[in-house]
Write a structure and sequence with these properties.
Blueprint (H helix, E strand, L loop, with lengths): L1 E2 L18 H13 L5 E9 L6 E6 L6 E4 L2 E2 L4 E7 L2 E6 L11 E4 L20 E3 L7 E7 L7 E5 L4 E6 L11 E8 L5 E7 L3 E5 L10 E9 L9 E2 L3 E2 L11 E6 L9 E7 L8 E9 L4 E4 L2 E5 L2 E9 L3 E11 L9 E7 L3 E4 L3 E4 L1 E4 L4 E4 L20
Parallel strand pairs: 3-8
Antiparallel strand pairs: 1-2, 2-10, 3-9, 4-5, 4-8, 6-7, 7-10, 11-12, 12-15, 13-14, 13-16, 16-17, 16-18, 19-20, 20-24, 21-22, 21-25, 23-24, 25-26, 27-28, 29-30
């Protein structure tokens, strides 16, 4: 009779013909962990066991090294420890000297199956599992281990609403197929979602528009997964802020004033007032000017003020001109707002107000000569004359 025997999964039927089921093992993991139960399985690859013998396979957990005992006597010459193969060690009993039927076999699985890695315990089934062994039969077992946890997890914001998660693969046995499972936690709400299984050691997490709220931190826990089950421990990232574009600028108000005390300089200052867009990151502002009939030009802009009253200031505009001004914001991810604000601004002749001249176009008080000096127009102030003065054209 040919059968497959599982030790450690909680299934003890001698007629079992299928490998251990991963879902069942995963369901049992919380109980195993809480009871500090072992983390390794013994899984026979090929067992030929005709009726007529009473041989038991027993997992012993009180030995630090790998030993096989037959009738409580440790035998090395009758035990062949094969090389590392797919998902575990291949252990063989038999060889030139046949193992007699009725022999009691005790297997001790090592507490340090993975190289340079310590394992606290060994997964054993309650009580020995018995099967029949024919004289001269060879029994081959594979020792499977739950995978180790992945290495360091890093999270980088690559694009708006995207986080790139990478991790270091754990040590694994040759031929062992490792995949990964991720838990994503929104630190602001505590909401957790699972992703996987993933075959690569990196993942791009896309945050939906519905979830894309500014200033939400996200952390990632990465588990390893093999044919046996999930790693008992995970590797976790530090919470990371996902990249997001700044919010809209909203309404922008404009104000134009004269820029220079020099009469020959008729340039003006354009001030655009707005509220700072919502953003978790520092913002940069760009102002694009387009003179009527001319090309667009990105001009330097200085932004000052508080979050509730930001002022963008630009100089060098010409009088008697019509401009289209577009103000936009971006953060260091270089993603501008969806709706930059465009405002139409017309400039005529600027007024310069002074107590002596009043609001007269392009005029400035000359304290030395006691007169209003105006560009295009000269206004002479005559002291001692009542009223607002007299205008003298030159």
């Amino acid at each position: 009779m040919k059968m497959r025997l599982v030790v450690g999964s909680g299934l003890s039927s001698p007629a079992l013909t299928t490998p251990p089921l991963l879902p069942l093992l995963l369901l049992a993991l919380p109980l195993l962990v809480s009871a500090q139960m072992p983390v390794f399985l013994v899984y026979p690859e090929n067992v030929t066991a005709p009726l007529g013998s009473n041989v038991s396979l027993e997992c012993v957990t009180d030995q630090p090294e790998l030993v096989w005992r037959i009738n409580d006597r440790q035998l090395f010459d009758e035990v062949a420890i094969g090389s590392l193969q797919q998902n575990g060690f291949i252990l063989e009993v038999g060889g030139p000297e046949a193992v007699p039927g009725g022999t009691r076999i005790t297997i001790t699985i090592p507490g340090t199956l993975h190289v340079n890695e310590s394992v606290e315990a060994i997964l054993c089934q309650a009580g020995p599992t018995q099967f029949d062994l024919q004289d001269g039969e060879t029994i081959t077992f594979t020792v499977y281990g739950l995978p180790l946890a992945p290495g360091e997890v890093e999270v980088v914001g690559e694009r708006v609403h995207q986080l790139r998660v990478t991790w270091t693969p754990p040590f694994s046995l040759p031929g062992e197929l490792i995949s990964y499972s991720l838990l994503v936690t929104d630190e602001a709400t505590g909401f957790t979602s699972s992703l996987g299984p993933l075959n690569d050691t990196s993942f791009t997490h896309q945050i939906s528009e519905r979830q894309a709220l500014d200033c939400h931190l996200y952390s990632f826990s990465v588990f390893s997964l093999n044919d046996v089950g999930l790693s008992l421990n995970s590797s976790s990232s530090t919470p990371a802020l996902h990249p997001s574009a700044p919010g809209p600028l909203g309404a922008v108000t404009t104000e134009v004033s004269h820029n220079s005390q020099q009469l020959s300089d008729s340039r003006a200052v354009l001030r655009l007032s707005f509220q700072r867009p919502e953003s978790c990151f520092p913002l940069n502002y760009t102002l694009t000017l387009s003179e009527e009939g001319g090309p667009e030009e990105v001009v330097p802009v200085q932004v000052t003020g508080s979050e509730s009253a930001m002022v963008a200031e630009v100089t060098g505009l010409k009088e008697n001109s019509h401009y289209s001004a577009t103000l936009s914001a971006s953060n260091h991810f270089q993603f501008s707002v969806d709706d930059p604000v465009t405002t139409e601004v017309s400039f005529g002749a600027w007024s310069h107000w002074s107590p002596e001249c009043g609001s007269v176009p392009l005029c400035q008080w000359d304290s030395q000569d006691h007169m209003c000096l105006c560009h295009r127009l000269s206004l002479l102030w005559l002291p001692g004359v009542s009223g607002s003065g007299q205008l003298h054209y030159h």
